[in-house]
Write a structure and sequence with these properties.
transmembrane; 3 helices; mitochondrion; 85 residues; Cyt_c_oxidase_su7a_sf; Cytochrome c oxidase subunit 7A2, mitochondrial; mainly alpha
């Protein structure tokens, strides 16, 4: 019983993969990207991808600074003894 479901599922997946792969041709943009990233223009390689790279970099730096500050705050709170009532 399970073997039939498995073989039907595999057959559908393989037919779908073959049919979609033959319909679309992907353009090879590797030489363009290589030229862009190897250009000596003073921009760090992690920012050469454009606006999305810059945005991702700034978000990462912001989260890192916020996380570090939060950890320091929590360590400070944890190191202080609680007041007795």
């Amino acid at each position: 019983m399970w073997g039939d479901f498995l073989s039907i599922g595999l057959r559908q997946i393989s037919q779908r993969t073959i049919s979609t792969a033959s319909r679309r041709q992907l353009e090879n943009r590797v030489p363009e990207k290589q030229k862009l990233f190897q250009e000596d223009n003073g921009i760090p390689v992690h920012l050469k991808g454009g606006l999305m790279d810059a945005l991702l970099y700034k978000v990462t730096v912001g989260l890192t600074v916020f996380g570090t500050a939060y950890v320091i705050y929590e360590l400070y709170v944890a190191s202080m003894p609680k007041k007795q009532k």
